[in-house]
């Protein structure tokens, strides 16, 4: 695999291999010396044209723990603010001898475009409302851990309710594609105003009845209300949104025994998720963050590591 631009780039064998190697990578996290030599001599540039806490930091940590040289570039502080185009910026950095770019950009399709311009390998760390493939991988990693912890393996037959602002979410698109490969049954839950055009072609049941969906779900994945992408009013008030589509304390109590909560973060507590749910014993939110480093190590290793890499 040369680039990771979409969750659809992964067949079952490669997705499973990334998840399996991530298990091994996660052991590094608890070692006193967090270093493997696998990517020594490789240079990874994390270039973020949009804000990020989890993705940027975890890719940087992942690269460093694998001994790659990692450099962070953000639009603010670069010559983008002087009007340099995306193409010129990427060609400039590529000419320095970069091996891989991890890129986040507000425009859908930006990562794909960059992959067509540069010699380096490209990992999509979120492009507009389009995709966020490493998020879907880390979600799958955390869900798989959870299923195993309750004595059940595999995604087949598991119901994953993805709830909230589907319209603006790249996380939902990558999860739908990845679960199509892994075998989980995704159910989409949103108010009609926050449904993407063409959602009926995604091959998943769609409902606006969160209470009905929750009774059946093995995973309840809450999505952030993405105010920064909303030009108009998509719902009356936050209180009404929370009543209809928030994971409230009452809905937390209505979850199936053994069911778990996911949220990619950042969370709007009190809007799509109550604090009771965010901090509940069956919330995987911080497991997702921890697993995110291991999954990104595994992705970097799969893309850049040689077969002789010392794991
Ligand atoms: N952090 C995720 C993303 O960048 C989800 C979110 O922002 O709500 O897509
Ligand atoms: N989940 C996620 O991508 O978080 P950041 O936007 O903080 O990177």
Description:
The protein is 39% helix and 14% strand. With 311 residues, the protein is of the alpha/beta class. It folds into two domains: 7-131 and 290-304, Rossmann fold, CATH 3.40.50.1370; 133-288, Aspartate/ornithine carbamoyltransferase (Rossmann fold). The strands form two sheets. Strands 7-6-5-8-9 form a five-stranded parallel sheet. The protein has a four-stranded parallel sheet with strand order 2-1-3-4, sandwiched between helices. The mean pLDDT is 95. It binds aspartic acid and phosphoric acid mono(formamide)ester. Aspartic acid (ASP) is lined by residues 126, 132, 170-171, 224, 226, 264-265.
List descriptors.
globular; 4-stranded parallel β-sheet; 39% helix; 11 helices; binds phosphoric acid mono(formamide)ester; 5-stranded parallel β-sheet; Rossmann fold; binds aspartic acid; alpha/beta; 311 residues
Write out the distinct hetero groups bound to the structure. Answer: aspartic acid, phosphoric acid mono(formamide)ester
Q: What's the tally of helices?
A: 11
- CATH hierarchy: architecture of the largest domain: 3-Layer(aba) Sandwich
CATH superfamily of the largest domain: Aspartate/ornithine carbamoyltransferase
Average per-residue pLDDT, rounded, comes to: 95
Q: Largest sheet, described in full? A: 5 strands, parallel
Query: What are the segments in which pLDDT stays under 50 over at least 5 consecutive residues?
Result: none
């Amino acid at each position: 695999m040369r680039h990771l631009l979409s969750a659809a780039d992964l067949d079952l064998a490669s997705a499973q291999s990334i998840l399996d190697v991530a298990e091994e990578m996660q052991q590094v996290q608890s070692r006193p010396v967090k270093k493997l030599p696998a990517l020594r001599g490789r240079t990874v540039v994390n270039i973020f044209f949009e804000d990020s806490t989890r993705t940027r930091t975890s890719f940087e940590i992942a690269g460093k723990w694998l001994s790659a040289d990692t450099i962070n570039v953000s639009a603010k502080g670069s010559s983008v603010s002087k009007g340099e185009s995306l193409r010129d910026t990427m060609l400039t950095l590529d000419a320095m001898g970069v091996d891989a770019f991890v890129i986040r950009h507000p425009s859908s399709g930006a990562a794909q475009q960059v992959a067509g311009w540069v010699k380096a390998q490209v990992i999509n760390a979120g492009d507009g409302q389009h995709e966020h493939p490493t998020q879907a991988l880390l979600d799958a990693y955390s869900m798989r851990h959870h299923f195993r912890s309750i004595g059940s393996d595999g995604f087949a037959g598991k119901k994953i309710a993805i709830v909230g602002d589907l319209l603006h979410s790249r996380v939902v698109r990558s999860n739908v594609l990845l679960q199509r490969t892994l075998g989980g049954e995704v159910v989409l839950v949103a108010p009609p105003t926050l449904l993407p055009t063409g959602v009926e072609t995604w091959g998943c049941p769609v409902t606006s009845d969160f209470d009905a969906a929750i009774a059946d779900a093995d995973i309840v994945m809450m999505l952030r209300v993405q105010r920064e992408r909303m030009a108009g009013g998509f719902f009356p008030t936050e209180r009404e949104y929370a009543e209809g589509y928030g994971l409230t304390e009452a809905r937390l109590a209505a979850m199936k025994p053994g069911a778990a909560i996911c949220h990619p973060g950042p969370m709007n507590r009190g809007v799509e998720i109550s604090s009771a749910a965010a901090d509940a014993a069956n919330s995987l939110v911080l497991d997702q963050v921890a697993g995110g480093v291991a999954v990104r190590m595994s992705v970097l290793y799969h893309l850049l590591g040689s077969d002789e890499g010392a794991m």
